[in-house]
Amino acid sequence: MSIEDIAHDVTQFRFCTVALATLQFYDYSLTLPDEVQCAWEGRGWVFFLFLFNRYVPIIYQLWSLFATFWVGYTQEMCNHSAFIHMLVCVVFTLVIQAVLTIRIYAITLKHRLVTGIFVIAATLQFGLGMFMTYSAARFPAHPVLEVDLPDAHLCIYEANRTEEIAYTGLSLLFDVGIFIIVIFRLLWRRPSSVKRPFIVRTIIKDATLYVLLLCTSRVTFVLTSVLTANLGHVTRFPGYTVFVTIMTTRMLLSLKRTSPEDISDGWILDVTTESALEPPSTPQIVHGVNRFSNALSRAEVGKAVPIPLEVIHIRDERPDV
Q1: Tell me: the pLDDT tens digits for 3-30?
Q2: Which fold is adopted by the domain 3-269?
Q3: Residue 279: phi, psi to the nearest 5?
Q4: Are 169 and 226 in contact (CB under 8 A)?
Q5: Less CB within 10 Å around the terminal CB: N or C of the chain?
Q6: 138-149 pLDDT tens trace
Q7: What is the Cα–Cα distance from 268 to 258, expressed in whole angstroms?
Q8: TM segments (predicted)?
Q9: Pairing between strand 155-156 and 142-143?
Q10: Which residue ranges does the chain devote to CATH 1.20.1070?
């Protein structure tokens, strides 16, 4: 590799780092008002997932800018930085998969078998990612530069190809599975229930669009990495992390904005518009009416009649035409 090629690669790397940081900070400025108004109201356990997804990548982005342009960045520091980046990306991926798994739990109307499959896949991928991170810590990275080029400091890992293929395969199966289920649940309805306004409202209120974009971006990056034989960058590509962070943040804020006011923590990750608007079945209606009729027949004149809870909770909120 010539000095000109190395200088060109370093310049591209710096330009990419600045562009990604600009994109992330710009999106942060756009979504900060929603975060202050919505996210900080209900501080449930999902709120901590939101904080991790929101601020850990931002902190790391600041460190990346500092490390990229600091002339005192040594080879040893580069090794530590690459290891920390791998660790953050593996944990960050687990957080994203946890959020998507909860959404699948809601979209499939709380189907435990389907949800369990995704939980197992995410757990296996996390375990493999931690093993890869541990292996990277044991074997330091090799310097890219063996020539005297001012202000150039990069390092890479020689990743185990078998481990990278396994990690990539698990990620691909997870995201493709979620994408297929979301599309299937969105389009597969009874003929009388297929109404375009309701589908559009479901996409908006359930943040389905962000879920689809999130899965599409992950699948696209994995396939690109496989086809270009750059598997060593699957868990450490900064652009992928930035885009996924933006999509996940917007998905969580969208769910927060559309959540009912009576939700305790305000995060409806495990509730969907479809399940909330599902009309009561005929046996439920008949049972509620019978309970109400029996209460009226037993009531005395001039006394209040207690209405059964089944009658109170009956709703007939059908999708708009």
Answers
A1: 455 555 666 777 777 888 888 899 899 9
A2: Rhopdopsin 7-helix transmembrane proteins (1.20.1070)
A3: -70, 150
A4: no
A5: C
A6: 655 555 544 455
A7: 9
A8: 45-63, 83-106, 113-137, 165-188, 209-231
A9: antiparallel
A10: 3-269
